[in-house]
Amino acid sequence: MRKLKTERQPEILDAALAIADEHGLDALTMRAVAERIGVTPMAIYGYFRNKNELLDGLVGRLLTSLPQALPGESWDQRLGAFAWATRRLARDHPGVFPLLFARPSVTPDAVAVVDLIYQALIDAGVPDADVPRIERLITTFVLGFATSEANGRFSASGDGIRSRRARGDFPAHQRLLAHLDSPADLDAEFAADLADLVRIIRPV
Amino acid sequence: MRKLKTERQPEILDAALAIADEHGLDALTMRAVAERIGVTPMAIYGYFRNKNELLDGLVGRLLTSLPQALPGESWDQRLGAFAWATRRLARDHPGVFPLLFARPSVTPDAVAVVDLIYQALIDAGVPDADVPRIERLITTFVLGFATSEANGRFSASGDGIRSRRARGDFPAHQRLLAHLDSPADLDAEFAADLADLVRIIRPV
DNA sequence: CCGTGTCAGTCTACGCTGTAGAGCAGTCTA
DNA sequence: TAGACTGCTCTACAGCGTAGACTGACACGG
Questions:
Q1: Complex ipTM, two decimals?
Q2: Scanning A54, A122, A148, B176, which has the fewest C-beta atoms within 10 Å of its C-beta?
Q3: Which amino acid residue lies closest to nucleotide D16, measuring CA to C1'?
Q4: Are A112 and B161 within 8 A, CB to CB?
């Protein structure tokens, strides 16, 4: 089988995504996917060359579910829409989302997303030569924030420290004790971060 | 064996890190680590409860190798030192580095790094209430940038597009063609990004 | 009507993984 | 000298991704 079949690819990806959402990335095995769609494991290899390519397909699927640009919107509205949609994606699929960081994809879907951001930056008046860098800066932050949230990097960290006896060694923590509860309102934090980033863009 | 032995832990982590650096994260198996230090695989379980905890130990090891603050430096020097050291870490250990995103750690080492950044932000005049958020913003970006680099998310993406016939569908790419070579000088880009971020901090 | 080709899916098996559980030689202490 | 403890080994198992051979259903040309 040189060429791959495509008809049931979406069905397979649906099953894979559901498994990862329900039981975590570790539970995403070829056998589990196969069982879910009612075939034997080897049947999947007619649609994806191996598990890695199935995972690639999965990130492609995530990317397509990002919104297209609506023509009437201003550049900062479009940028915001991308950012919030990305973050929602991470919350909906915390198991799979971190793969976006690991598997750079150059599928048309991925390029379309980048193009959307390029256009927003151009409309914002960013000089052409700076646009690709600023795009990388923004997507890196947005992806990083969403991934951190999905992986619990934010929620777990602050809590322990105040109870820890060793906090004498950490003077800045000591001083900031009042502000150290793990951030209850990540929505507000994300919004504030985006506002700060937009301030980078505006006057460039 | 309830309590874990500690004496050979560093030796084991050294071996694990070397394997990951030389042959990638996939090659980092208990058997490979064991063989490298000349024991059987099960001997490792006297030092780490399981592979996951060994990986946790590995990220702890990365964190300790970050530089401590030098007293004489200004806040932006300290911030820059952290950022560049983090990025160097990712370049030196591209296989392991992404684990920093996946495994939030609250070891004293991790807290020490955060404390260093807190202190720099305080010295920069950031209001106490904003310090934790800005710290998360900065580390998220720095970690994200370094991870992207380690995973090749930056280098692979730009190249194909100009040769792709479909670029008509991507007007912004079309317009930016001249600036779309995959960024040759990531050093300069990282420096520019840091400068932009510092501009967020300064007037807050 | 009969071969024959194509194709989707199955079956079996292999090497590799993490790790549980039992055992074993050497050293320290009573 | 007996016994406990310690650091390690040995064996074994279930589960993983996947190669290779196979099967049964359908379509089609003679």
A1: 0.92
A2: A122
A3: A29
A4: no
CATH number reported for the structural domain that contains residue A128 in this entry = 1.10.357.10
Residue A36 one-letter amino acid: R
- How many residues would you count in chain A? 204
| Residues of chain A positioned with their CB less than 8 A from the CB of B171 | 115, 119
Nearest CA to B144 among A75, A175, A147? Answer: A147
Quick one: B103 and B44 in the same domain?
no
For chain B, the residue count is 204
Whether A45 and A85 map to the same domain: the answer is no
DSSP designation for A96: T
Spell B10-42 as b/e; 16+ CB within 10 A means b: eebbebbbebbeeeebeebebebbbeeeeeeee
Indicate if CB(A42) is under 7 A from strand D. Answer: yes
| A96 touches A23 (CB < 8 A) | no
Are B109 and B23 members of one domain? no
Give yes or no for a contact between B191 and A131, defined as CB atoms under 8 angstroms apart. Answer: no
CA dihedral A112, A137, A60, B94 (to 10 degrees): 140
The residue behind tokens 């495509």 is A6
A109 shares a domain with A14: no
Q: Tell me A184's DSSP state.
A: S
Q: How many CB atoms lie within 10 A of CB B103?
A: 16
Determine the residue among B51, B79, B140, B179 to mutate to test chain A binding: the one whose Cβ has the most chain A Cβ atoms within 10 Å. Answer: B140
Whether residues B182 and B153 fall in one domain: yes
Residue B63 is assigned to a structural domain of this protein:
no
Domain count, chain B: 2
CB atoms near residue A119 (< 10 Å): 20
Q: Which of residues 5-24 of B touch strand D (CB under 7 A)?
A: 5, 7-8
Give the residue numbers spanning the domain of B33.
Answer: 9-49
Q: Which residues contact B97 (CB under 8 A, 6 or more apart)?
A: B62, B89, B90, B146, B147, B150
pLDDT in tens, chain B (204 residues): 568 999 999 999 999 999 999 999 999 999 999 999 999 999 999 999 999 999 999 999 999 999 887 778 899 999 999 999 999 999 999 999 999 998 877 888 889 999 999 999 999 999 999 999 999 999 999 999 999 999 999 986 555 555 555 556 899 999 999 898 777 799 999 999 999 999 998 865
